[in-house]
Write the structure tokens for this entry.
Amino acid sequence: MSYPYQIKSVEHYHEQYQKSINDPASFWSEIANNFVWHKKWDQVLNWNFNEPKVEWFAGGKLNITENCLDRWAETQPDVAAIIWEPNEPSEKTRTITYKDLLLHVCQFAQVLKNNGAKKGDRICIYMPMIPELTIAILACARIGAIHSVVFGGFSAQSISDRIQDAACNIVITADGVYRGNKVIPLKSVIDEALKTCPSVEKTIVYNRLQLSVSMNDGKDVWWNKEIQKVVDKNIQFIPAESMDAEDMLFILYTSGSTGKPKGVVHTCAGYMVWANYTFVNVFQYQSRQIHFCTADIGWITGHSYIVYGPLSAGATSLMFEGIPTYPDAGRFWSIVEKHNVNILYTAPTAIRSLMSFGKEPIEGKNLESLQVLGTVGEPINEEAWHWYNENIGNKRCPIVDTWWQTETGGVLISNIAGITNAKPSFATLPLPGVQPVLVDEQGNNIEGNGVSGNLCIKFPWPGMLRTTYGDHERCRQTYFSTYKNLYFTGDGCLRDQDGDYRITGRVDDVLNVSGHRIGTAEVENAINMHAGVVESAVVGYPHDIKGQGIYAYVIFNGEINEEVEVKSAIAKTVSTVIGAIAKPDKIQFVSGLPKTRSGKIMRRILRKIAEGELTNIGDTTTLLDPSVVEEIKKNRL
Ligand code: PRX
């Protein structure tokens, strides 16, 4: 199989880039012609960032699952679509061919229908990293239901918020999941969440671990038994629902600078084209290569580069249930060796963590199958980049540093493996169709090279978000109101002398902890739910492994006998409200917070102190009570 739209050389990249800018409509319609449509589009692009309104391939009709399954089941039925590596190395690997994946998806789509699902319904998926998660996602898409996958590490409260926001009527889950040597009881987390979710009518439970779980009569059904009913009726195929190009495909919740996560909405056609185009080009995917993206499907990286990108390209996607350090810190390398992985796509935090174990876990592992390496989620520091390059890629594998966001659907800025130059800690150049601009605080365009500013995108690309679920105004305010006629990414960025882009981190109150976005306001809300907490302020600080750690300043008026215990109770509150990923790394009790006369917390000062910058914290004269700063500095952790 070959991809006619795959970039072949540096010259070809520049030529394609120019074409995508000069004539986006013909550029994207040529690419979209490589997909299966029920009906071609009437108009390639219709947009206006003020509303915002963005429509790609309007009037077109299609179903993404025919592009991910049916066409490959016909032309390459026995090629592996998914290779699954379980958490326990002793458990059997599963390989699912395109033919079988189509069968499983059709059967589960019928199960969904039997349980009342229909086009347009919102279905929450809270599942382990097992092939059934991919099957569930594609089955929703097959019948035109909108999936909302919630990462398995989120708490009952977070799941409930997400289910309620989207008014989901069905939840798909499993009894439990292994994560390293821990068992996480997913079904009981869902039971807790559903106490506050009246919209949910059915829960479909996959039996992964044979745990004993409580099943609510009439409401809860077993995946396996429901599939058996479909098998008994000999249903092996169901036709795919015909979707409008701009119908919603999925919702994925992500954190922002306010306390409440928002449901980023992606639509059928544009997202498909973008996930596919970026997968094929950035990684330079070649027929039959094995692609291993280590992300969890609960995040956008898993949606785009485990499920939709690879499958829409007829690729083989490796799915791993476990964690990089179980049973030991050589697990990734064992997987590469065992499955002859060709492309490895992971996060800088994982690289830094594995780096800390030294070379021993790599010794004796055959990594020769690797051809391309990638990173995503946060800026990669040079030390980690070189370690990855030397020890994993053996200096012969290009590393792509891919910058993108939940909202962008797929990669926007990255080098192209083996084609355009890599530069450690730089995402380098925009992909065709992507028009980045740097602006100053007032929104003035900063031209030229060797400059820094806030990163915006001035023209739509097919994979961009269309709205935030149930609240279009929030979408406008968050992304399109800061700078006129621009999509604002929330990231700071440098464009160096060569014109290469380097993302320098968030410029808003969003943290990036181990490659995951966490809003400071969200963490503060959670901390404040502890009965003894009066007020709190959360900032990020540099952390060797996580990239950023969470530093919380807390005013506490409860009784403090054992400080350690109180702090761990506060951290536990955060785990219960959000999930373990948002637990503060450091909690400092303070008697007051530095505030302006109008009551605004001066985070800049708190950030400096958390970072250990105690001498040069800037002007404190506008503070209501400058003396709190001295106290905070003195007691810094
Ligand atoms: O700050 C940027 C950082 O991650 C943010 C997006 O987070 P999320 O929506 O969770 O998606 C993560 C996976 C795509 C961005 O605003 N980020 C992502 N990739 C990079 C990055 N920062 C620097 N370099 C990257 N390659």
Remarks:
- The chain has a mean pLDDT of 96.
